[in-house]
Design a protein that fits this description.
There is one protein chain. The protein is an alpha+beta fold and 370 residues long. The protein folds into 2 domains: 89 residues, OB fold (Dihydrolipoamide Acetyltransferase, E2P) (Beta Barrel), CATH 2.40.50; 195 residues, Multidrug efflux transporter AcrB transmembrane fold (Up-down Bundle). It is built from 7 helices and 5 strands; from the N terminus they run αβββββαααααα. A 5-stranded antiparallel β-sheet has the order 3-2-1-4-5, with no helix packed on it. It is globular, with a radius of gyration of 27 Å. It starts with a helix and ends in a 6-residue tail after the last helix.
């Protein structure tokens, strides 16, 4: 049996074992601390239309849910719950027969038992989504795919630790933390993916230079324009300085875009030198610039659409409530536009930076990664 077939067989075996584990874990209802309720019958007992002053319509409905408790000392007891939902289901949900709900039981002042629906039990679905993601990463990316998932988990842990430190210890050090965190995210991600070698050094330097240069240019532009036209209203609920929080997010956004481009350019150079080791520095530079020009446009569009997609619900909400296009876009998209422009600057700057550093580390010092 070849190594590749053995790898696929091992991957399939682990996938099946994971499915068995998920099914056992998510059906062991006694392990859950909250009260679980399985819907056995759901019927609509009331329905009516609502209209606001702007002419927006929605349908409100009331459900009667009958089911049984799946855990606690009252396991097996039948319960009848009431659920009110809207047709849009923005703030609520319509439940179906077979759904398992997390509920909170309480005693009324009359002594009767009642319960509030907290949420739908989603851990089984989320577990399968994560499993399929990891399986595809391993199937398509092999070792690198698994390492990508590992670096994602490690970086998530670092980010959670930084936010916890910010919330509970030193709220004044947020921006400084993210400046240091940008370097930490870069080093951790690239070392996990590539190990310590010349390619990793070229990637780290390219990513950090591209990130901080694009951030510096964006910050200087904001300072010179005295932040006119920048609307922080969507961050009103934050009690700390929205300016510093926005700058921290801007830095991380630049980092993501720059790292992607640096990886593309330097990996392409590595492959070129692996199969064509006699290429001159001029030929390598020209090839890297062609690759860079081809990815600039798509990457900038990816950034724009990624930020726009997050703001789309608010844009539609404003427009549906008779807000003008000018007011809507200035209120909602000013911060998203700055993020997209800053990331695009980083993409453009990273192409020559990563090209030069890649050529230096591979051509001057040798293409081998030792």
């Amino acid at each position: 049996m070849s190594k590749r077939k053995g790898f696929y067989l091992l991957l399939l075996s682990l996938f099946l074992l994971a499915i068995i584990g998920i099914e056992y874990w998510t059906h062991d209802y006694d392990q859950y601390q909250g009260t679980l309720f399985k819907v056995e019958d759901a019927k609509i007992v009331e329905k009516h239309q609502e209209r606001d002053e702007h002419g927006n319509q929605d349908v409100k409905a009331k459900q009667q849910l009958t089911g049984v408790l799946l855990n606690t000392k009252d396991k097996g007891q039948t319960l009848v719950l009431s659920n009110t939902y809207s047709h849009s289901q923005v703030y609520d949900a319509k439940y179906q027969v077979g759904d398992i709900l997390l509920i909170k039981r309480r005693t009324l002042h009359t002594g009767e038992q009642s319960a509030d629906i907290l949420s739908l039990k989603r851990d089984r679905l989320i577990s399968y989504c994560l499993l399929v993601t990891l399986f595809l990463l391993a199937l398509i990316g092999n070792k690198q795919g698994v390492l990508s998932f590992v670096s994602l988990i490690v970086n998530t842990g670092i980010l959670v630790g930084m936010t916890q430190y910010y919330v509970h210890t030193n709220p004044q050090a947020l921006f400084k933390m993210f400046v240091l965190g940008a370097g930490l995210f870069t080093v951790v991600s690239l070392v996990i993916l590539n190990g310590w070698n010349r390619k990793t050094w070229a990637l780290i330097l390219s990513t950090l230079l591209g990130t901080f240069l694009s951030f510096l240019i964006s910050w200087l532009a904001m300072v010179m324009l005295q932040q006119k036209g920048i609307r922080y209203e969507e961050m009103d609920f934050i009690t700390k300085s929205p300016h510093l929080i926005f700058l921290s997010g801007l830095l991380v956004g630049c980092l993501g875009a720059v790292m992607d481009v640096a990886m593309t350019i330097i990996t392409s150079l590595e492959e070129l030198l692996t199969y064509q080791p006699n290429l001159s520095q001029k030929e390598l530079w020209q090839s890297s610039q062609v690759i860079g020009r081809d990815i600039m446009g798509p990457m900038a569009n990816v950034l724009l659409f990624a930020y726009l997609s997050g703001a789309l619900p608010l844009i539609l909400l404003y427009l549906r409530n008779d807000m003008s296009y000018t007011f809507t876009f200035s209120m909602i998209l000013s911060l998203e536009f700055i993020r997209a422009v800053a990331g695009s600057i980083g993409i453009v700057l990273t192409v020559p930076i990563s090209s030069w550093l890649g050529i230096y580390f591979f051509n001057k010092l040798g293409v081998t990664s030792s």
